[in-house]
Amino acid sequence: MRYLPAGLLAAFLLAAPLSAQEEPAPSAQDWQALESRAQGMFDLLKMQNSELAASSLFEGVGEDTTEKIAQFSEQLDTMIESDGPLLGCEVVSRNNFGSYMAKLVYVCQHARDVAVWTLTYEKPGRGWQITNVTFTTSYEY
Question: In terms of Cα–Cα distance, which of 53, 33, 141 is closest to 93?
Fold first, then answer.
């Protein structure tokens, strides 16, 4: 019975560091690389080069992305025709699901409207890859 308090104290001391650990998340370097990649795409959109912007987004996906790039490029052209040229973007949210999934949310100003962009990335064994991108002018915050 005299060892019970010592055992409880040891269990408490060992459990404390486990509960104090941070949740896994992408490193600061990972966030910087993802934001840099997104900014490169937005810079190309400012120059109204939707095909290169789409190409830069799907870079490193590993599969034939020709069709994805063509479809996304058309969507970007439609957005630019509708909302006007892209004037600027700012990151407003970073979210993660562990160390291997990251989501960036941007607010982008166009000549005639404001759009919210969401870019979702996964990190399989060979580096970060875009898995989903959405943009909309219909949003609620």
Answer: 141
